[in-house]
Amino acid sequence: MSTIPTVTLDDVLAAREVLADVIAPTPMEFSQALSDRTGLPVHLKCENLQRAGSFKIRGAYTRMSRLTEEERRRGVVAASAGNHAQGVALAARLLGIEATVYMPNGASMPKLAATRGYGATVVQTGETLDDCIEVARQHETEKGAVFIPPFDHADIVAGQGTCGLEILEQVPDVRTIVVATGGGGLLAGIAAAVKATRPDVRVVGVQAEQAAAWPGSLQAGHPVPVARMSTMADGIAVGRPGDVPFELVAELVEAMETVSEAAIARALVYLVERAKLVVEPAGAAATAHLMELGEQAAVRYEGPVVAVLSGGNIDPLLLLRIIRQGLTVAGRYLQLQVRVPDKPGNLAGALTMLAQMQCNVLEIQHHRRVPGLGLGDVAISLTLETRGHEHSDGVVQALVDRGYAVERA
């Protein structure tokens, strides 16, 4: 018999009572664009609009509210790439507890600043969340602070499960819930809350394929760490599933899917453009899965579908890079190198033709020192804004037909 604590519907309901005066239900937005794309009614659960920018305050506050007075005097310590850090810092401020948070050296500046802004002491260490957890555990041992785990505790899972209660209330006829997954706290909590009263609802986890510890772990029957992670979705870049979430996910969750970095970038841009919602890469993972399925979503799942946008804490500089990548993946950015004779009028002729094809030139550079370039030629690097893949292909073909030597970057 397992000695790992489980989480029941009563636990989630008790957590909602704890959170009643702390958070308000986040919006549920119907997405006509995603519904048209998938052939299913799709709703977006906007945890990116939660206090501190993600669902994490739900679990952090629930856990910390149950500390004894003696534990509160000792303070708390946590490890996080950003969202849990902000949830712990805000909960600590609300509860009058001193908090220390260990964050990776690569953590984004806005997440660092927000965590400090809520009053926590921030220490940067290591490169990954697992590095930070190890140091935070040492802090716990040496200084007596209470460690607040990002996902692997029954109180944390119960708190995150309150999101599932809101989903059932906001979309009573929901049939499928798609959830971005790192350590598994949110997925396990939602599954525990939903399956207790609606066992017919399908709950699906989604991971970044370059940080996917869950598929192998579920196959093995126990948490198995991944050797290497490399993803822009730092909010779900967790090397090993939590023991408490694992038990619930293995029992209650029907499927665990993965999505590529390109799919995440494309989904993030899609949400900005079509839903007018800013999310971080992890927050776009569920949407990315539905977008990749397209019309096949109606074959795989029943609707209505709820995709959880788990967080919105994104560095504007990263957002800029992702938007560029997402537009490139969608065929909206076209990068070319065009070789032409180095004579007056050749560049003007190419630009005139591009204008006639309704291309917007974003960047242009001349290169005369390119390997293999003819003595009398010049290489022109162009970054163009186009209307999609078909338009981009037409532009390239038109340049070739005009006699230009063209290479796509």
What do you see in this structure?
The chain is an alpha/beta fold. It folds into three domains: 9-50 and 154-326, 3-Layer(aba) Sandwich (Rossmann fold), CATH 3.40.50.1100; 56-147, Rossmann fold, CATH 3.40.50; 332-408, Alpha-Beta Plaits. The protein has 17 helices and 14 strands. It has helices at 9-19, 32-38, 56-65, 69-74, 83-95, 109-117, 129-143, 154-170, 185-195, 214-220, 243-252, 261-275, 285-293, 297-300, 316-329, 346-356, 389-401; strands at 28-30, 42-46, 76-79, 99-103, 121-124, 146-147, 176-180, 202-208, 255-259, 305-309, 333-341, 360-367, 377-385, 405-408. A six-stranded mixed sheet has the order 1-2-10-7-8-9. Helix 1 packs across helix 8, helix 9 (185-195) crosses helix 11 (243-252) and helix 12 (261-275) packs across helix 13 (285-293). The termini are far apart. The mean pLDDT is 92.
Q: Tell me, what is the CATH class of the largest domain?
A: Alpha Beta
What is the CATH architecture annotation of the largest domain? 3-Layer(aba) Sandwich
Number of strands: 14
Question: What proportion strand?
Answer: 15-25%
Cα separation of the termini: 57 Å
CATH fold assignment of the largest domain: Rossmann fold
* Number of domain modules: 3
Write down the Rg: 24 Å
What does the largest sheet look like?
Answer: 6 strands, mixed
Query: Any idea what the shape is?
Result: elongated
Give the number of helices: 17
User: Can you list the strand order of the major beta sheet?
Assistant: 1-2-10-7-8-9
Provide the residue-averaged pLDDT. 92
SS-derived structural category: alpha/beta
Helix content: 40-55%
